Structure formats: C-alpha cells, structure tokens
Amino acid sequence: MSRFKVATAAYPLGVFDQWDGYAAKIREWVVEAAGQGSDLLLFPEYGALELATLDGTAVSSNAASCLQATSNYVPRSNELHSALAQEFGVTIVGGSAPVLENGVMVNRAPVFGPEGTISYQDKQIMTRFERDPWAIEGGEPLQIFDTPVGKLGILTCYDSEFPLLGRALVEAGAEVILVPSCTEGLEGYWRVRIGAMSRALEGQCVTVMASLVGDRPEISGMETNTGMGGVFGPPDEGFPPTGVIAEGTLGQPGWTYGEIDLGKVRAVRADGHVLNASHWGEQVGRDGKPDHILVK
What we know:
Elements: E1 3-12, H1 19-35, E2 40-42, H2 57-60, H3 63-88, E3 91-93, E4 97-101, E5 104-112, E6 118-122, H4 128-131, E7 145-147, E8 150-154, H5 163-171, E9 176-180, H6 186-203, E10 206-213, E11 230-232, E12 244-247, E13 254-261, H7 262-271, H8 276-279
Parallel strand pairs: 1-2, 1-10, 2-3, 8-9, 9-10
Antiparallel strand pairs: 1-13, 3-5, 4-5, 5-6, 7-8, 10-11, 11-12
C-alpha cells in the first residue's frame, strides 16, 4: 500500500472501575478512526497506564503499584487491541505500557496487525523520571515492522531526540517513523516534536507523533499532560514547505488524520532538492574532534 491514512491520537487517560468501561473506550476510539478510513492508528506513550485504575485510585496514584498493576493487565489489553485490529482491518500501535520482564521493567509499545499478530517495540533511552523514581530500563533493540501500510519504525518519545536511532531505522528500510509521546509541559512537547521533525528531515521520511493530553492526578506521573497529534515530512518537493502534513489542536482530545504517500518519500529520497538521507555518510571523517583556532 503506497498511499494510506494515519490517525494519531491526542489521548486523555481515564479512570475505570470495571473492565467493560475501558474496553468500551478503546473500541470507541478505534471505531471513530476506522470510520474515517484510517489504515494505521497510533496511540501515545503510557496510554496504557489508565489500566491501573481498575485496581483503584489508591493503586494507580502510587508509582510502584501503578506500574505493576498496568503490567498485570497488559496481556488482556493486548487481546482486546488485537481483536479490534482484526475486526476493523487496521494496524494499531497501542498506548505503551510498563511491562515487567525477567525482573526488569521496560516501556513497551505494542503493535497489532489486521490479521491478529502482536509484536512490540521497547523504548531505548529513558528520561530522568523513568530512571528515578520509576526504575524503568531500556528494552530490546529497535525493530522494523513490515505492515500492510509499509515499513514502520517506532521511536518512543525521548528516543526521537537521538539522531542515530532514527538513522538506524532509515538504514533498515523505514519510510515512516512513529513517535508515541507523553510530555508534561509545553517545552517537553516541543522537544519531542522538534525531534520528530528533525528525524523526518534527515531521514527524508514521514514521522507521526501521538500525545497524552489532560490532567489525571489519579495516575502516578500523569498529573499533567500536554500535546497534540502531528504528521510531519521533509520540507521538500511533494511535501508542505513547513514539513507539517497535519496537526491537531494543543490539548484537545481526539484523532488527527494525515494522508501518507510513500511514493513521495521515495521520490524525495531519489531526487529531492536536497538528499539528506543519501548524503548522511559524508559526515564520516568530518565528525572528529575539531581543532581549536585562536582568533585575535
């Protein structure tokens, strides 16, 4: 599929006292996006933390118990998302979750295919808050997801701010990089957005950013969330001069929709006004320690 529609979420966390309420919410979001003709749905980083409220707000408001409770519900949540992906014939990247594996807590974004497959991408580089007090660690390496809409990579939030991670995905064949994010303040949102747009520029690809929005004091670490959905490309031939294909409204919950044409990605990589992706290697040998020159 060389052309497809993406839906990227500005997602507000909820509080639930029963599973059916959570399942109904996720279904409603998927129904809306699929009803608009979306082929790929992206939920934000830590979108799964609302699962912890199923054990009560005393659990979800405590850091350690919130992470563990969320991890406990992940298998059931995966079954729900997988069933919805099959029912509506879409690819879904679910809200990432803390997952306890072999004694290590990782931040894991699940990927659900329209035929029911379940895979995942772990976050690579942790923020200060994730390191302490949450004690979350970097997980398994980066992967490329061969999906019905094309070759996708995932850079979860802070990962998008590191160019070599984006380059690794581009060199492995990614034409679209997904950036699920969770940012407290406006400065955090812009750090991730600038990272996402920079990866689109240097990799001559499309990046898609999802965000958490709204205040949720009942969930540890999620007291305030700022962001919106966005779809970005290289500011070059065939793309908007700003590089912004689509963007939502800051702080407003809902889907942002964007049309992605992989033919344009391939065209700009082959014959754009600039050729960042193919000229990347010319940095090698020019990136050593600079000499110091005294200017008087």
